[in-house]
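Protocol step 4 of 6: record predicted structures for both targets in the notebook before any analysis. Target 1:
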Amino acid sequence: MWNGGTHQNQGASDMCTAARHDKENAAIKHDPVRRAKNSIPLIDKDTQIAYPLAAPCVPLVYDLRYPPNSFCLPPSSPYEGRGSEFLRVPLTPARHNQIRLISQDFPWAFNIGPKPGAAEQGVTCLDVLTALHAALQRPLSDTEWGAAAEDKHASLVRARDRRLNMKPAVCGSSSTEACTTARPRVRFVSDVDVQPARREPSILRVDWLGSRVMFGGLVKDETFARRRLIPGAREPSETWVVRFQNLP
C-alpha cells in the first residue's frame, strides 16, 4: 500500500510538472523577449543580457559587407523560418538609449542610439546590426590609410577587390520585415561626417576586417573597454565588444 501510494503521488507530481512546463512554454511562445532569452544557450552571466546577439551562440549568419536584411537563419537556429521580429527586442533588459560598440578587429568606436520615436524600447538587436553595417560602409579616411602599416595596405586592397566582385545580396531572412528603412542613430567617435559609399572603388571601413567579415556576436570585456578608452574621456554607460569570424 505504501509503495502504491508513492507511485500514485509520483504520477500526480509528474502531471503537475508537465502542466507547469506547458504553461511556461506557452508564455514563452507569445513573448519574443522571453523566447529569445530562453532559446539560446549562453555561456556566462555577462553575455546573457545581449540575447539574441550574444557570442558565441549567435543564431544567424551575417556578412557585414551586405545590408542587414541579407542575414540567414541556418537550420540549427531556434528562429529558422522566421523573419526579423526576433531581433526587434531590446539589446539589454535595462533598455539603454545609447551603447558603444568597440572591437579588437577594428580601431573605431561607434555610439548607437535607438530609432527616432523608439526611446522607450531602447537600442534593439536589429538597431545594432543596422548601425554597425552603416558604420562600416563609410570610406576609409586619408588619415586612417596613412596610419596603417604597409601589410595592412595590401590587406585592405585585397578586401576591397573581393568586395567589388561580390554578387548582389539575396535577402536570407524568411520575411521582408528584415528590410528596414528607418535607421537607428549612430554617431562616430572622433570622425567627420562623411556620406557612406557602397559599390565604389573606394576602400571602406569594412575592408579593414579582411576576411573576418562575419558577425560573431557581442561580449562584455571590461578590461579591453578600459584599455580602449582614450585617457580623459568619460566612460560610456554601456559598452559592448563586437566579435567577427572568418568567411566560411
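Target 2:
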Amino acid sequence: MSFTLPLLRRATGSRAMARLTMFLAVMGPGIITQNVDNDAGGITTYSLAGANFGYALLWTLVPITVALYVVQEMAARLGAVTEHGLADLIRERYGVRTTTFALLALVVADFGNTMAEFSGLAAGGEIFGWSKYIVVPIGALAVWWLVFKGTFRTVERVFLVASLFYVTYVASGVFAHPDWGQVLRATVVPSFSFRAGYIIMLVGIVGTTIAPWMQFYLQSAIVEKRITVKEYGYTQVDVLVGSIMTDVVAWFIIVACGATIFAHHIHVETVKDAALALGPLAGKYAGALFAFGLINASLFSASILPLATSYYVCEALGFESGINRTIRQAPVFYGLYGILIVGACVIVLLPNAPLLKILFLSQVANGVLLPFILIFMLLLANSKRLMGKYANSRAFNGIAWVTVVVMIVLTLALVITQMFPARS
C-alpha cells in the first residue's frame, strides 16, 4: 500500500483532501481488528451486563476505550516500524522455545474462540427459525471462499462493510427508548458494587475487550498492507476510530438490554434469550436487528480469528503467509485456515459436543496468555535498537504499564472466578 500513497498525494488538489484520501487508503486494520472484538462472546457479555445490571456498567467503557487504544496503538506501531509481525519479533528476540509455548496455547484458545463464533451463528439463525445444520455449513463455506479466493484488498473491503453492519445495535438501542438522562449519567458517573455477580461481570467486560489474537492480527495486517512509518499517523487515526467504534457498539448493546430486559425484570442466560426478549419489549425490528447483528458479528469474527492464527503460526515458523499469496505459495497458511474452520464447524454441529467446557478452556487460555503477550509487546516497543525514535515515550510508557497491570489483575481475576465460581 505504501507505494500508492505518493501517487495519491500528487493526484489530489488540496492538502486537506490529500490527507483524507491517504487516510482512506491506509484505514482498515485498526477498524477491522477492533470491531471483530465485538464477536459472539462479546455481544453475549454486553447483553447480559445490560440485562442483569441495567446501565450500572456503562461507565466502564470509557477507561476500556483508552486501554484498547493504548495496546492496539503499540501493536500497529511495532508493525509499521519493524515491518515484521509480532510472532516473528517474539521469535527473533526471545527464542523458539518461548514462541512455541505461546503458539500452542494461542492455537488452542483461537480454536475454541472460532467454535464460539459458529455457535453464535447457529444461535442467530435459530432466532429466525433456521436450522444450525444449514446455517453453519453455509457460513463456513462463505468464510472459506472469501479468504481462499479473494485478495487482501477484496477481503479488507468485505470486512470494512461488515464493520458497518454493527449499526444494527445502535438502532436496537434507539428503538428501546431508554431514559437518555439516566444513560448519560451512568456513563460519566462510576458506580461500584462488591456483589460477586457485579465483579465477575465487570471483569468479563474488561476481559472481552483485549484478546491476544488481536495484537497478532493487527500487526500482521499492517505489514501485509505495507504501511510504514511514513503513513503511520493515518494508522493511529484508524486505530483510534476503531477503538471508539467498538465501544460505542458495546454501549448501545448494554443500553438496549438495560432499557428493556432489566427494566422488566426478565431473566435471560444467553444472547439468543436477549434477542427474543427484545422483540415484545422494544418492537419486532429491535429484536430482528439484534439477531442480524449477531449473525454478522459471528461470520465476521469466524473469518478473522482463524486468519490471525494462520498469520502468527506461519510468521513464527518461517512459512509464507498472506492473503495476497496463492495456495501454492502459502500452503501452510491456507491449510491451517481451512482446518480451523472445518474443525470448529464439525464440532459445533455434533449433537452432544461439550461446547461450554471447550469455551471455558479457551477463555482460561486467553486469560493466561494475555499478560505475557502484553509484556512482550511493551518490551519490544521500548527497545531503542528495534524502534529507534519510535520507542515508547515516558508518558506513553506510564499509561501503557498502568494499562498492562490493570489488565493482568483483571484477567487473573477472571480466570480465578471461572475456576472457582462463587456458590452463593
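Step 5 preliminary note on target 2. Confidence is low (pLDDT under 50) at residues 1-12. The chain is about 80% helix and 0% strand.
Proceed to step 6 after PI sign-off.
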